From TrEMBL:
SUPFAM superfamilies: Epsilon subunit of mitochondrial F1F0-ATP synthase. GO terms for cellular component: mitochondrial inner membrane; proton-transporting ATP synthase complex. One of its GO terms (biological process) is proton motive force-driven mitochondrial ATP synthesis. The lineage of its organism: Eukaryota, Metazoa, Ecdysozoa, Arthropoda, Hexapoda. This is Uncharacterized protein. InterPro entries: ATP_synth_F1_esu_mt, ATP_synth_F1_esu_sf_mt. Belongs to the eukaryotic ATPase epsilon family. Pfam families: ATP-synt_Eps. One of its GO terms (molecular function) is proton-transporting ATP synthase activity, rotational mechanism.
């Protein structure tokens, strides 16, 4: 059994921890570039009847459910 598995981690968690440790161990000039690369963002796009709605607009059905 893998060490990370016996520690109760899945592979994604293990690789994220290893990447963080590596980024922290770099020299200052390369560390800044690597830290920016480690950030991620999520953007949501909604589709109605096969076409994408403009960014930031939600389907009317979703707005009714939240109200």
């Amino acid at each position: 059994m893998s060490t990370w598995r016996s520690a109760g981690l899945n592979y994604v968690n293990y690789s994220n921890i290893a990447a963080q440790v590596l980024r922290r161990s770099l020299k200052a000039d390369q560390k800044e570039i690597a830290m920016r690369r480690g950030k991620s963002t999520i953007r949501y796009f909604y589709w109605v009847q096969g076409s994408m709605l403009p960014e930031g607009e939600k389907p009317k059905q979703l707005e009714k459910e939240k109200a």
